[in-house]
TrEMBL record:
This is Probable dual-specificity RNA methyltransferase RlmN. [4Fe-4S] cluster binds at residues 127, 131, 134. The gene is rlmN. Its cofactor is [4Fe-4S] cluster. It comes from Thermaerobacillus caldiproteolyticus. The active site is at residues 107, 351. One of its GO terms (molecular function) is tRNA binding. Its EC number is 2.1.1.192. Specifically methylates position 2 of adenine 2503 in 23S rRNA and position 2 of adenine 37 in tRNAs.
Amino acid sequence: MEKTDIITRNKRETATRNPSIYSLTLEELQAWMVEQGEKPFRATQVYEWLYQKRVSSFSDMTNLPKALREKLDDHFVITTLKTLVQQTSQDGTMKFLFELHDGYSIETVLMRHDYGNSICVTTQVGCRIGCTFCASTLGGLKRHLEAGEIAAQVVKVQKALDEQGERVSSIVVMGIGEPFDNYDELIKFLKIVNHKKGLNIGARHITVSTSGIIPKIYQFADEGMQINFAISLHAPTTELRTKLMPINKAYPLPKLMEAVRYYIEKTGRRVTFEYGLFGGVNDQIEHAEQLAELIKGLKCHVNLIPVNYVPERNYVRTPREQIFAFERALKKHGINVTIRREQGHDIDAACGQLRAKERKEETR
């Protein structure tokens, strides 16, 4: 059977598939328990089994009555991800290509730092934003992930770390897809992994990045969450940003900066601007000067990113000395700036690159 036929069949099966229990917040699970005539504390027990003991079957939840375990099995599934490819870099970075229940695939990355283990999660199968430098958008958007499918990535990687006596200490929502294009499921995921009975990842150890969907930036500011917030900026002018990121046509840079100012004023929190450096495109001193002018006075930080080469794209890496010159130019204007440490350079490190290589039928 052809891969496309399998995906079509699995999509039909998905229509009658039970929802993922990982998609439920604790409050939603408590409400479900009450509807079923159960005590609310049963929801807490289930959460402990899912996120602390990390079982893969309701039958393993041995302190629940058998009838309740059967009821859970009738109503929900515990999302499982099939590992298609696992790559390990010399620096310890691990990249996973996971297959979902409908045959589509996603990427998840584990990065090791001095301060702990960080996991980069995916929020969509593909992406419709169309950034001209990104492999994630090849083939467009296939579908949104459910909150449970995002959470399952963390659980899956944590299970691998369990064998080494380690844990996930931070999360970055910067994998395949635009998180704010899947906003409701994103917020549910954040609440689930942040909850002390869930994976108990502190809000200030979670970072969400957006390419600039302006209405959702305002909404996110009003959520009152202590989650770290990043903007994929990549250009200091409207004209250049439109060339790199077509989303700038719908949400132009001046309006984006207004939304950023609102976020800072509303939350009092710092914003990180992610700035990928592309050789001969946006990496000249004049660009650094323009960037400094754009963000002056803001409570912010600039993260300079030496780009990974993507075969399907034409951009090249900025020379090392030019990266340092760009950094110096920003610092001269008092801008808080760092250069992102390169990780996974000897594997398919660029976001979406492993999926593009292994699953060509999805990214064509």
